[in-house]
Amino acid sequence: MSAAELDYIKPELMACCGAREIRDGDLVIVGTGFPSVAANIAKYTHAPNARMMQESGVYDAQPKRPALSVGDPCLNPGAAFIGSLIDVMGMFLQGGKVDVGFLSGSQVDKYGNINTTVIGDYGNPKSRLPGSGGANPIGLLAKRVLIIALHDKRRLAERVDFITTPGYIDGPGARAKWGLPEDQGPEVIITNKAVLRFDKETKEAYLESYHPGNTVEEILENTPWDLKVAPDVHETPPPTAEELRAIREIIDPMRMITIYLKRGYV
Amino acid sequence: MSAAELDYIKPELMACCGAREIRDGDLVIVGTGFPSVAANIAKYTHAPNARMMQESGVYDAQPKRPALSVGDPCLNPGAAFIGSLIDVMGMFLQGGKVDVGFLSGSQVDKYGNINTTVIGDYGNPKSRLPGSGGANPIGLLAKRVLIIALHDKRRLAERVDFITTPGYIDGPGARAKWGLPEDQGPEVIITNKAVLRFDKETKEAYLESYHPGNTVEEILENTPWDLKVAPDVHETPPPTAEELRAIREIIDPMRMITIYLKRGYV
Amino acid sequence: MSKVMTMKEAIERFVHDGDFLFIGGYICRTPFAAIHEIIRQGKKDLTITRSNAADDFDMLIGAGLVKRFIATFLSLGVYGLGRCFRRSLEKGIPHKIELEEYTNLSLPMMLMAGALGMPFIPVKDMVGSDLLNVKSFMGEDKYKVIVNPFDGTPTLVVPALKPDVAIIHVQQADEHGNAQVWGIEGDCKWGANAAEKVIVTCERIVSREIIGKDPSRTIVPDFRVVAVVEEPFGAHPGYTPGFYDVDFMFGSLYQQASNTEEGFRAFLEEWVYGVEDRTAYIQHYIEKFGYAQFRGLWADFDYSYPVSYAY
Amino acid sequence: MSKVMTMKEAIERFVHDGDFLFIGGYICRTPFAAIHEIIRQGKKDLTITRSNAADDFDMLIGAGLVKRFIATFLSLGVYGLGRCFRRSLEKGIPHKIELEEYTNLSLPMMLMAGALGMPFIPVKDMVGSDLLNVKSFMGEDKYKVIVNPFDGTPTLVVPALKPDVAIIHVQQADEHGNAQVWGIEGDCKWGANAAEKVIVTCERIVSREIIGKDPSRTIVPDFRVVAVVEEPFGAHPGYTPGFYDVDFMFGSLYQQASNTEEGFRAFLEEWVYGVEDRTAYIQHYIEKFGYAQFRGLWADFDYSYPVSYAY
Question: What is the Cα–Cα distance from C125 to B101, expressed in whole angstroms?
């Protein structure tokens, strides 16, 4: 596997970064793509008791092909529980049972606020996006939120055009004003260049590690705010043989993850 | 059947009085005993499209024996819908879909208020009764409420010791104060001696008809309030051959209805 | 990661003095084996709740284990009134329980609110009744009347309930706790999911694969469950759809016994303290009433049509 | 009292210009045959709602029939963004729809509140987001912030939704309308039961006896239903568990067509206006893409174990 190790693609590394945030026994609400791959890597490596659910109402699905949506047919046969949106979004998420939620967005800002609603003016949009879906409640109610983003000055923002899903809103204390637990919220932004982690005090994302092949300078140039750099900033550990084996042999033998290359995750 | 007609028992007459209050197409929430027999008489005679539900979560059950409780095993096989208490009490009843509810109680007063909680002082009861169960919401939220009671000065009351289930509370306008529709509430009290109907204006129960064998005088003597008598007071029409056939051949061939004789319904 | 254990172990480990218990069932799927084990272990100062309580709650009250009861109703139904319940409230025997009374609409809504992480829930019942005039241990938090912010009308709201432990009896569960039921549900799903921990007792333990053949039947997912106990006839003298009928003879026997304190104590001696578990209980039943009586309770065969979730 | 009728009749009789429609589905069981018939009949000024909308909502918007949309999300998922939705909001083509935006927690809760006769319902989402800063046709009634009367904290409440008509596609129903589903439910049960009238379209009509063999599968009882339409492949290009898979080829075809106004209009001409009903649609599908492609969508066999409700 050592040759293959050198051979990984960025989306694989990003999925591994997500997987490493998941602890054994975590309940993870996943969508499709990255989140699903990441949660499964964790399950097949260090977190065998992690369990996944989809907002559509499915818990512990046993898909025989990668799900292409949270309502995908392959999520039905073999699941442990299939209920309704109310069951997953109400009973499990609003009920405080979900440990980890994955989110992505067209814009993500330094406080982890996410925009999936509109680019430009809401009433007169430059670009209209899908809207919240389950993102807003997942961002507010999951204990730890992992954000996936493309690393450029268009996707990362000092301040998003529209807060669809609050991260730390405008900084320390803002979540508490709304009765949200202070110890919940975004953990990391995993980009195609780096892992940004949120500072417990300032609630701002800082550079924790740069991916192999990327540099701190390049990352600072491509981040539209004055990105703080961790004193112990380091290279992101590449995927391990075990992680790559889980991806390639078990989770995604058809290599559907390669579609992220076309979407710019290089 | 003409000989049988002379032969009916009081509980059969009372069930027929209940049946006659049910209109074709009504949705009826029933318990066991009288309500169930009455609703079924209606279904097998003038109201073939009446439909029944039990508060336990069952709609359109097809019991092969008379149900002895609203959770009886015989209500399961063949029903059209089985859900939860929330489905029947919330979705159907609170949702405003139930036309008719049947209630009974240890005490019933002239405004149709019902006590199934306590005789005597609440904190220091002479006799503790089961409590509301589904009675309170059925009384408040079914469009028409039919009350079954024994006709004596202990069971009928000027004012119940405890309002478990409000009828018209303390008279005209009282339900509206709580946001309840003025045109809903108790329709009749069907006793073993008479049918008392509620006056649309005063909201007080008056004597509409006396059962064959009972007299107005006897009824007035056994009613603890100054019972008004309808100008056209008349004898309750006895069960028809068709009604008796439905009871005896279809609904209750084992004659379980006779247990009401032992309970004083004579 | 199997959570399968004996009833003794499940109750020892997960039910504590002073706990707030939701106990499922509605004549249908009453977790009677668990109730008996709680009595054997003498767990005390319990707060208990369910809509439409019956003989199981009466027995816990008679055994002196209940401090508080969030209630809608307690009756033995066709057998008559709950005698232990009455003795407690009328005469303080063995002690007077504290009672907070709601209805079969508001209490299930409060459990649903608890399960769904809602702080409170608006309901349309109870208004105009004396249920609003009596308040016990919940005090001013029994309910509130607020102004509907949309139309200005007065609106009753009741608080969410979050029991410490839920105990439910189901037809089948896997070893992790995925629990499946069919037929009358009562307030089982919401009550179980409102609780911090769930004890699942079941007629049969099945494989995870069987659960996955029909996942829409699951009402509690495994991650809510702390113990799985396989307990055939665990709901007797209540019933379980597809498994056995109500035992009217036995229900009536309890009613008659519980008519007096002495009778009630003798009943507990014989059927609870005198047997170590449900197996011994059924053994005693068969010895006393005969196998034919026991066999007579078994359900007929009347199977549904299978469905497929495939694509 | 059969309510069985053709899709044409059901839509003619029960969907009117200006109606507020809940349309069920979640890729799973999308009532596409009904959507096409609504477009054929040109029902206009509609208000539409469901959590997680997709190609069916995009098509109604593109066809110019939607005035208002109570939304959480609209995307074609794996195929990309909803182009008609974007053209409407970005360029006013064919006109700009009015949008009221919630989330996949709050909107299902609002439908549940509607179904349960609740005036409003507290939710924990949306706070701190710009979703609270944009209000459209619901105005100040989009939500309210009240004081939790139990603990004094600010609490968001959202109003109950009560659509005029719900349209859902299910696996099976009887002629009276008792509708059964299994697999992913989305917000179908609550959305349907919140509506004044329900139109049930189904893969197969079964006897009342078959419904009664497994009544826990019923999500809508007959008395809520005004029309039952037997429409095999009624959810295509979506899927129905146990019946057929998603048609990715066709989903992609729609996405590509809808990239331009012209392409979208040509798609409607070919697949909606150009066929008179679902039978003609499937006929055209088979003629165009071949029976093998059609046959490839059919579901595998993988049946559940039967259960019994007997006693």
Answer: 14
**What CATH number has the domain bearing residue D25?**
3.40.1080.10
Q: Checking DSSP bridges between strand A107-109 and strand A114-115, what pairing results, if any?
A: antiparallel
Residues C79 and C100 in one domain: yes
Q: State how far the Cα of D154 lies from the Cα of D144, in Å rounded to an integer.
A: 10
Domain shared by D149 and D1, yes or no:
no
For residues D248 and D183, give the distance between their C-alpha atoms in angstroms, rounded to a whole number: 20
Tell me the residue type at D114. G
- Cβ burial of C46 (10 Å; 0-12, 13-18, 19+) is buried
Q: How far apart are CA C58 and CA C120, in angstroms?
A: 29
Note whether D73 and D143 are same-domain residues.
Answer: no
A193 vs A95: CA distance, rounded Å = 35
Q: Is C107 in contact with C51 (CB distance < 8 Å)?
A: yes
The whole-angstrom separation of Cα D107 and Cα D102 is 6
Number of domains in chain D: 2
Please indicate, yes or no, if residue D203 is contained in any of the structural domains: yes
Shortest distance between the Cα of D239 and any Cα of chain C, in A, equals: 8
CA distance D9 to chain A (A): 30
Report if residue D293 sits inside a domain: yes
Tell me which of B12, B21, B55, B243 is the catalytic residue: B55
Q: Which of D30, D21, D28, D34 lies closest to D227 in space, CA to CA?
A: D34
Alpha-carbon distance of A90 to A80, in angstroms, equals 18
The amino acid sitting at D289 is F
CB distance C77 to B68 below 8 Å: yes
How far apart, in whole angstroms, are the C-alpha atoms of residue D170 and residue D180? 6
Shared-domain flag, residues C139 and C285: no
Convert the pLDDT of each residue in D268-278 to its tens digit. Answer: 999 999 999 99
Compute CA distances D218 → A79, B78, D51, D193, whole Å.
20, 12, 21, 12
The answer on C190 and C280 residing in a single domain is: yes
Interval A175-227: pLDDT, tens? 998 888 888 999 999 999 999 999 999 999 999 999 999 999 999 999 999 99
Question: CB D310 to CB C304 under 8 A?
Answer: no
- D242 and D141 fall within a common domain: no
Listed in sequence order, the residues at least 6 apart from C196 whose beta carbon sits closer than 8 Å to its beta carbon are C162, C163, C164, C165
Identify the domain containing residue C89 by its residue range.
1-131+160-298
Mark yes or no for CB contact C311/D121 under 8 Å.
no
D262 with D144, same domain: the answer is no
- Looking at the structure, tell me whether residues C147 and C268 fall in a common domain: no
pLDDT-based confidence at B232, cuts 50/70/90?
A: very high
A217 counts as catalytic: no
For residues A153 and A19, the answer to whether their CB atoms sit within 8 Å is no
3-state secondary structure D89-133: HHHCCCCCCEEEECCCCHHHHHHHHHHCCCCEEEECCCCCCHHHC
At which residue do the structure tokens 């935006």 appear? D101
Of C1, C178, C193, the CB nearest to A49: C1
- Put simply, whether B60 touches D (Cβ < 8 Å) is yes
pLDDT one-digit tens code per residue, D35-93: 999 999 999 999 999 999 999 999 999 999 999 999 999 999 888 899 999 999 999 99
Sign of CA dihedral D25, D30, D31, D32: positive
Instruction: Specify if C194 maps to a domain.
Output: yes
C109, C128, C154: residue with CB nearest B169: C128
Report if residue C303 sits inside a domain: no
Q: In B2-152, which ranges are continuous DSSP H helix? A: 2-6, 10-20, 34-44, 85, 135-141
The arithmetic mean of pLDDT across residues B206-221, rounded, is: 98
Distance of alpha carbon D32 from alpha carbon D53, whole angstroms: 12
**Architecture per CATH, A3-262:** 3-Layer(aba) Sandwich (3.40)
The number of helices, as runs of H, and strands, as runs of E, in chain B is: 9, 15
